[in-house]
Specification:
The chain is of the alpha/beta class. It has a single domain, classed as Rossmann fold, CATH 3.40.50.2020. The strands form two sheets. Strands 5-6-4-3-7-8-9 form a seven-stranded mixed β-sheet, with helices on both faces. It has a two-stranded antiparallel sheet with strand order 1-2. The chain is globular, with a radius of gyration of 15 Å.
């Protein structure tokens, strides 16, 4: 199945000059979504994760069904102030300024094998920040996976873990 046929391209979103790759249409198509999740299971299973981590917010859509099918746990990395209870935060650099991601302080057991998931890998900034945060709380980050990778932006090169993507765009 050509999953690219199920991904909508939205020009000038969220701002002029940006081409947004929208997985809403992929998720809305039952057979295409099932195929996507099955391909991710195939990619992630060899890493033997104990826990899958989804990055806010579309990463939750990717990680949760995978965790269910693989029989692993699932936890979230979120933007600042979105998680209840004690959290650990990590500040990271953006092109212009900084941002913060957080995880609940008891979400990861020391040494736990985790795989980080998101819908899209572009420049790698957010995924890199999530890996840094997970290591900060004692996780053994064994890999990352995403539905879409924009290879022309070089995000994979910012990561020091194996990365799997289901659909790649070269330009």
């Amino acid at each position: 199945m050509d999953l690219k046929q199920h991904i909508r391209h939205v020009p000038d979103f969220p701002k002029p000059g940006i081409l947004f790759y929208d997985i809403s249409t992929l998720i809305a198509d039952g057979p295409a979504w099932k195929e996507t999740v099955n391909r991710l299971v195939t990619a992630v299973t060899p890493l033997e994760p104990e826990l899958l981590v989804g990055i806010e917010s579309r990463g939750f859509l990717v990680a949760a069904p995978l965790a269910y099918l693989m029989g692993t746990g699932f936890t979230m990395v979120r933007k600042k102030g979105k998680l209840p209870g004690d959290t650990i935060r990590h500040t990271y650099e953006l092109e212009y300024g900084t941002d913060v991601v957080e995880i609940q302080s008891d979400a990861i057991k020391p040494g736990q094998r985790v795989v980080v998931l998101d819908d899209l890998l572009a420049t790698g900034g957010t995924l890199h920040a999530a890996v840094d945060l997970l290591r900060k709380v004692g996780a053994n980050v064994v890999g990352a996976a995403c539905v879409i990778e924009l290879t022309f932006l070089g995000g994979r090169q910012r990561l020091d873990v194996p990365v799997s993507s289901i659909v790649a765009y070269d330009a």
